[in-house]
């Protein structure tokens, strides 16, 4: 059991930027804004690891904390990766540089820093932060599931305050879980496909990629005179949320299908871990409040609970999403320190 005056550092590694934070031994975050540096991940491991070290130094400089007080560092990256931080063959979109394939990013940073480094994927780190914000001192007695929709569909499962990683580190990959599409898709709507090779998984519907590949092409066939019909499909997909916020009928139909898909994910999760809390994250959090509230209400409407579950389960938003990865990583590192 660790005691005394110490800190952990959390670093959230992304496709364009790293964000860092510092957590003290009393559970206080010492940085309340974004502390970013370019990540340079597309330039390969050498430059990217140096940037992670610079992010570590930057947050210590901001807080005035000495390096000697750092007991551990939490690192998160986009997946797929093993539970110990070995990037999958071929890597994710952010790790397209050939030198990233099967690269142990956790071990590389640990070697450079000379400080223990704990690894999570970014969805797990955000899920852990959301869990601890919502449940506070009772976090280790509670469970939650997070679904975070962006370019893809990330997620995380927390049980008794701990992230469930699984044998290969792939637990919580909710986006690549096949879901029942009956009732989600319109009659005659093609089965959606995912970049992972599956059809009918959650990400094929509830993600920006799902809009681009599947939903928008179908709905434009239903609304051929829509303003987005003449726009490049990738650019048009990024504009759909703005149309939905303004009440556009086609755009709302697209986001209703996304909310229904998320409801199916939560319905399955309810049968596995029966969590206390279900968190919704992603771009929808940054949307206009009226649209955000409608989206979450639609998720709730299409989440199938037993009566006993519906009386206690909560569906709510991931807080502080921009900082959630770094903060969740710092929490994971602090938990490791305390349990040594």
From TrEMBL:
Give a Pfam family name.
ROK
Which InterPro entries is this protein grouped with? ATPase_NBD, ROK, ROK_cs
- The source's domain of life comes to Bacteria
Family label: Belongs to the ROK (NagC/XylR) family.
Instruction: List the protein's name.
Output: ROK family protein
